[in-house]
Amino acid sequence: MDGIEEIGKKAYQKQMWGAYEEAITLYSDAIKRHSNDARLLNNRCMCYLELKDFKRAMDDAENMILLFPQNKKSYFRKGEVLMNMEKYSQAEEAFKLVLKLEPRCEEAIRHILEVQTLELSKQTKYTKKNIIRALRMTNDVEQAEKLLKSGKFNAIMQELDEAVYYSEEEDDKSENEYDPFLDPSNPLGSTSLWVGNLTKEVTEQTLKNLFGKYGRLKSLKSNGQYAFINYFDAVGPAKAMKNLQGTIVGSKNIIIKFPDSSKKSVKPK
């Protein structure tokens, strides 16, 4: 009788060839004898997904969560099933549980952006490009919808396209690409903010009063067009970005971004 590794290899080979039903038969046989192996349930769930058998795929995903609650793939598979069932808000919650286990899981972050985009596309008439931009700025479906409906959205986008912090490399980015520098959840753990689209009448004291509401400021320096604001912790910048992105200060909508130096300061795991 073949061991679990041998059965797993045979099943996975069938899966890669697209012989999903045969792979499921092999995985099911292995699961009966080795129910404590997360890989078997995970791969069988993926096969059910390919066959669009969402009920059985969800059963496997739920069993994974029950048996392997600390395995990020348990929640990831559930998110994929829900996304395929067009239950986008529920899928988003499942992918967010992945981030609780692995906060910098880029695949989960991309899927969250994707399901948020699909949810808003279903609810509104806005273009995919504008939906993604609004989501990048708010990280929240409800807030993104409010921003899209507000009269200031187009003005913000025009100024954003002309902002001095965009490099040629950034201009070439895919519209679908996740941008951590605009994510108000502050995945980079930055203690600083870059604030652009300022006018000369906006003084440093004005900015201190405005941004100081969200945390203790360490320093602030403005040249009249843009400013760098430093906090004592990473909580303040996140709150400020979430609440102030696109706010009219002076006569223009300000643009907030985590500075490019933020990524360099993150130590790889």
UniProtKB/TrEMBL annotation:
TPR repeats lie at residues 72-105. Keywords: RNA-binding, TPR repeat. One of its GO terms (molecular function) is RNA binding. It holds the Pfam family ANAPC3. Residues 191-261 form the RRM domain. InterPro entries: Nucleotide-bd_a/b_plait_sf (IPR012677), RBD_domain_sf (IPR035979), RRM_dom (IPR000504), TPR-like_helical_dom_sf (IPR011990), TPR_rpt (IPR019734). Transmembrane segments: none annotated. This is RRM domain-containing protein.
